[in-house]
Amino acid sequence: MDKNGLTYKIFQIAIPSIIGFVGLTLFEVVDIYWLGKLNSKAVAAAGACAFIEWILYAMMRLFNTGCDTLVAQAIGAKKENEKFDIIREAAFLSLVFSFIVFILFYPIKGYLFLLMGLDQETQIYAVAYFSILLTGVPVIFLLDLLGRIFNAHGDTKTSTLILLFVLFINLVLDPFLIFGWGGFPVLGIRGAAIASVFSMSIGIILRVYILRRKKYIPPLLSFSRISFKYLTRFLKIGIPSCVTNMIWSAVYPMLAVIVTKFGMAPLAALNICHRIEGIPYFFALGFSISMSTLVGQHYGAGNYKEVGRIVKRGGFLIVGLLVPVSLLYILIPEQLIMLLNKDEEIIKHGADYLRIIGYCEIFLGLEVAMEGAFNGLGYTRPYLLIRGPLTLLRIPMAWYLAIYLGMGTVGIWWSISLTTGLKGILMVISFFKRYGLTFRDAFSRQCIMEVPKRDQDLLTYHSFLSSFQR
């Protein structure tokens, strides 16, 4: 593979990110393994907490997405001082917002799990686990922001190595804190949460040290100088991203209410399937990060004609990677579930989910990858208008199929799969329409290997911007 070629550059950024995300998934699998040794209620509680954690991760995007985008564009434009100003402001705003999030969520944490329809014992486990994670919200927000600074520089390898080390610490601590190995107190499910927050704190120290050593961030003492001149741009980029992902995150606890009408086994199965589905999802996230970085840097440098090449090449690559995954989900879902759980009822519900979601898995890849492309441009409104409504549609569709038509949990799984397919298709159409391209261009070899003549004419600065205003 040509090291100067576009495909190599995409993989160079994407692969370390994918490895890190897969490592995160494997960690969650091991986490479930240890919690499963407590009881099935602890596993269900961790799954319920994961739904709320997604909301927190979505809220991180309010300032962190803008930091990622603007830092990448500043790097492309070779504006070092501007980059440092952006990082300082983003760090301050992200930390302040994290404390606001803690204040908002802590008093209502118990009520959130009550709304999800959990039984009393599962609620107790969930509140114990989530209370500790909430105290670590500033740690979670800052760790993500530091990772995004690495991503904006295209240095996902270093960030991933730190992440893997953090996960290793977490895995080692889990049994000691959960079961009281080596003289530690027996903390149960709370021990898993403490291990997570502690290991992430170590990750912050390492990331700050290496970021400063590589001169990716300004001197630490200079972080007291905050200008707020990028606040509007942060919000313009971050609000659509934040709202879109909050909708996505909030829908799953609402779906959990419908799921639990059929018992706790479907919820446990959904939790396990999300861990399994995390692998292709993180493939897509890796390409999303790669596309966001490359699009942002080329846009900042004024190389507008490269944007189309990056997006089309990345789209084809992620589809090619997810086709085999889709086939595995469709053909051998039972065997995949059995790797993590032997309960027959959980295997049945989980296999149904994987088989149904497998039909639209490639569209999940396109949806997430295209989000990265829009992030790189700093133009996040389109995916709010597409992903938001279709994600919300899952709730009435799930109720209609599962309850009204009597399809049971299969109806819920179909509501997720069909809306995923629609989102992926419409995200691609939206970008192509605004980019001034046709689908014939997308599938032509000329369009993949080099920018067509018509794109060179279209992609001047003013026509590029005007294409987003049509």
The span between the termini is 39 Å
The helicity comes to over 70%
The ordered H/E elements are HHHHHHHHHHHHHHHHHHHHH
Question: Which structural category fits the helices and strands?
Answer: mainly alpha
Low-confidence stretches: 445-470
Binned strand content: under 5%
The count of strands amounts to: 0
Oligomer: single chain
The number of helical segments is 21
Question: Main sheet, how many strands, which sense, barrel?
Answer: none
The total tally of domains equals 1
Write down the overall geometry: globular
Instruction: Output the radius of gyration.
Output: 22 Å
Overall pLDDT score:
86
Folded structure, characterized:
With 470 residues, the chain is mainly α. It has one domain (6-464). It has 21 helices and no strands. It has helices at 6-36, 40-76, 80-105, 109-115, 120-135, 137-152, 156-179, 189-213, 231-259, 264-301, 305-331, 333-338, 344-358, 361-377, 381-392, 394-404, 409-435, 439-443, 445-449, 453-458, 461-466. Helix 3 packs antiparallel against helix 6 and helix 9 packs parallel to helix 16. The protein is globular, with a radius of gyration of 22 Å. The two termini are 39 Å apart. 50% of the residues are buried.
